[in-house]
Please model this.
Amino acid sequence: MNSYAIPTPLIRSLRRAQHVVVLTGAGISAESGIPTFRDAQTGLWAQYDPEELATPQAFRRNPQLVWDWYRWRRSLVKKASPNPAHHALVMMEQKTSRLTVVTQNVDGLHEQAGSSDVLELHGNIMRARCSAEEIVVAPEPGEGATDDELPHCPNCGALLRPDVVWFGEPLPEATLRAATAAIEACDLLLCVGTSALVHPAASLPFLAIQRGTSTAEINPQETPLSQWMDFELRGPAGAILPALVAQTWPDVAVD
Ligand code: BJW
Model:
């Protein structure tokens, strides 16, 4: 039995909403065993600051180090499964006219859970692309390199890199445009598990806030968004999102 009490006005907003947008960050996958970026990292990688590895400069300086980090993170993603928070969003999609997930995550867990309208702002860690050309390469074994080797583009021989967005790089234009349009058009925005420190993703909620759209944040910690939200639900997404679905639609079975 999920006992987290959801505010009644939020339940009403969700029942009435024609288009719900859910902006997600690393926190929604934390309960799947994937470390967030800004919570302390453990083990082998504790000595590295993710913000110093997720840059084109780091890749130019030391591609082996960056690939080692991404291969380690890929191994975590491969072992991970969607958690109750991802599943609750799939149920929410089934109960609403339209639900768009705008995610900063690169782990593909929303798609794996069954969400059908997912916009990946920062790419996908399981893909690679050529560092010299606009060519996306299928995940291994197509990358054709062992853990000790660096993968190369089958077309031009340049180094492959993870197909993700690093600091200082533009987000995929069409995806960012679609996310902007969805947030401008939605009538409820949920911000789940993001520290809201990385732009332009962190600026997107303000498109809804400025329009007077209903907004809610689901996060155990306060963020720079908190003061602007209509509702602040403090706690883990894996408990709160199933409670939100169960209390909005009591006929739905949630885990
Ligand atoms: C739970 C939980 C549980 C824990 N349940 N919650 C405006 C102002 C200032 C700076 C800039 C600006 N505009 C652009 C910039 C520069 C920069 C930036 O934002 N820097 C800031 C850090 C200051 N932005 C960029 O460089 C972006 N590019 C750009 O703007 O390009 C412009 C351009 C145009 C034209 C030509 C050239 C350039 C690109 C940003 C790319 C970010 N990439 C990364 C790595 C992706 C690949 C990878 O995975 O390796 O994306 S960085 C990293 O941060 C990753 C994340 O998606 C992103 C956001 O992190 P997120 O998801 O919020 O995670 P955390 O760890 O920060 O927070 C987790 C949260 O979960 C916490 O709040 C916890 O409390 C919570 N939580 N458990 C619910 N169980």
Remarks:
- The mean pLDDT is 92.
